[in-house]
Amino acid sequence: MKKFLSALLLSVLTSMPVSAGNDTTEGLSYYLPKTAVRMQLLIEKTTTQPGQLADYSELFFKKPAPTSMQTSYRIVGINFTAVGQPDTDKQFTVAVDKKHSILSIDCDPNGTLRAINTKAPVCAKPRQFRQAPKPAPLNPRDYMSQDILAAANLPKMAQLAAQEIYDIRDSRNQLSRGEADNMPKDGEQLRLMYRQLDTQERALMQLFTGTVDVDTTETVLTFVPQQAEKRHVLFRFSKAFGLTSVDDYSGEPYYVDIEDEGIYAKLPEDASMADKEKDNFKLGVGMPGKIRVQVNKADGTPVASFETNAAQFGRVELLNGALFGKKFTSHIIVDPATGAVVELKTEPLE
To answer: Which among 156, 151, 197, 157 is positioned nearest to 176, based on CA atoms?
Structure first.
């Protein structure tokens, strides 16, 4: 078994030069990650378009209506995920030699370690935001009577449209009281008539109150938490303009605070199987620390929070090379976002 592993290893990897610092050695190179936070902001944009008869809304319905286009923004959701970026200060090169049974290293496309002697499971990608389908907009002209369409001026059109709306409301009341001249034969017909009356009223009311269009979009911000980071401006947001840059003072600042919770990941128990063996070969993995990310408004109002392990808040652990030596071989799966060892399986060599 040992001879087979050594022969296979040498035939596949002996011609792979890898640079580590200023040295050039034969082997496989990888980075441990630096943990970044990916923040998905869901921003709702509301646009109000004035109706053709907005000036007459208060006269006929006792409710003022906007007479100019209005746009407003608000944050309706914040989601977080941890992602890994290669830490160029934590590059390791696994030497290829006859004494060790490292056959493969699985890395992310950016060079961050994911697995040793096995394939890492496919990481779930962040869910892509998709807008909900919108109903087809109503065209008030499709519901205007001939008299409304033929009105010579806006005051007359407003008067006729308002009268039509009140007639629709009166018809709905008669249906609800069972006093309509042509009452429906069953409940389904009644529901259909209600829907038709409601649609007609909404379409004609748009002439006075205008239309409201709501769109929700996603914006992704990525940042790398740092030690003792307090009251750092993450972004600015304006109700009138939406998301703005950090140096655009038209927006209210949103701050991020990073709290180091002082809790560190541990190695799986199988890592101790080689403790009694002496081996100068060392392989670096991460032991990340747990942090809490808090996003607040300028007045201190909390907006969102997120807890995760972060590589830069922990330390690097050097595994004993005997885990891949003459007596044992190991399979390791690493979290590419934090560098933590997710799974370590060690088995004796025959």
So the answer is: 197
- Measure the N-to-C terminal CA separation of the chain; round to a whole number of Å: 6
Helix pair 187-209, 154-177: axis angle to 10 deg: 160
> What 8-state DSSP symbol labels residue 127?
P
Element spanning 92, H or E: strand 70-95
pLDDT reported for residue 6: 36
At 292, list the tokens: 């809490």
Whole-number pLDDT of residue 7? 35
Helices (H), 63-218: 146-149, 154-177, 187-209
Task: Supply the pLDDT for residue 277.
Answer: 63
Q: Do residues 290 and 306 make contact, with C-beta atoms less than 8 angstroms apart?
A: no
In order of 33, 158, 162, the CA distances from 148 in angstroms are: 69, 8, 10
Question: CA dist 306 to 86, 258, 290, 293, Å?
Answer: 22, 10, 11, 5
Q: Determine the pLDDT at residue 227.
A: 81
Query: What backbone phi and psi angles, to 5 degrees, belong to 80?
Result: -125, 150
Note whether 18 and 25 are within 8 A (CB).
Answer: yes
Residue 255 β-bridge partners: 233, 296
Q: Which residues of the chain have pLDDT under 50?
A: 1-25
